[in-house]
Write a structure and sequence with these properties.
Layout (H helix, E strand, L loop, with lengths): L3 E2 L3 E2 L6 H26 L7 H29 L20 H25 L5 H6 L2 H21 L12 H25 L17
Antiparallel strand pairs: 1-2
Helix pairs in contact: 1-3, 2-3, 2-6
Amino acid sequence: MDRHLGPHFKIPAGSFLVFNMFATSISILIIDRFLYPTWQRFIPHWTPTPLRRIGIGHVINILAMAASGLVETQRLQLQVVRTHQPDGPVVPISGLWLVVPLTILGIGEAFHFPGQTALCYQEFPKSLKSTSTAMVSLPIAIGYYLSTAIIDLVRRKTGWLPDNVKNGRLDNVYWMLAVIAVVNFGYYLVCSMLFKYQNLEKPNDIADLAH
């Protein structure tokens, strides 16, 4: 992909993750200062509880994986040189297209992780309040280990992730992750419907999340 911005500047490949972090930071500000107050004003009967925030984050993450798959599919369609010329010309598609799924992912994280932190802090006993915020890092750590295992399995069982991405099918990886995210969201819905808030006036309102 063409990573140039103008004739003299080229975005380093590893720097694209900055767009994700930037989107998360801006989204948290907008959500906290504008979206939630507006939400509570116009839809007071459907408050943005922590579980609902996490659920919205899951849905947006699924959209991010689908967007990544679409961008990669478009890249493969425009790719002219593949297996026999691994050092061929750059695929004629701007690398800025990667900003779209990274931004969507950042928005999802702006819903998901603050919601997760709020849920842990709200539901843990008072004596474990400091420990509750640290619990958010636990599923992140587990996720890193699981992602490593999934990528290793994909590399061993398929040809989707060779050393040269031009010869692979990265789009299939993204679609696979989208399917996993959908299954994970279904599991989350089941757990959220069975969950009962201990420190909320209306503990059963999360049942609406499945509808």
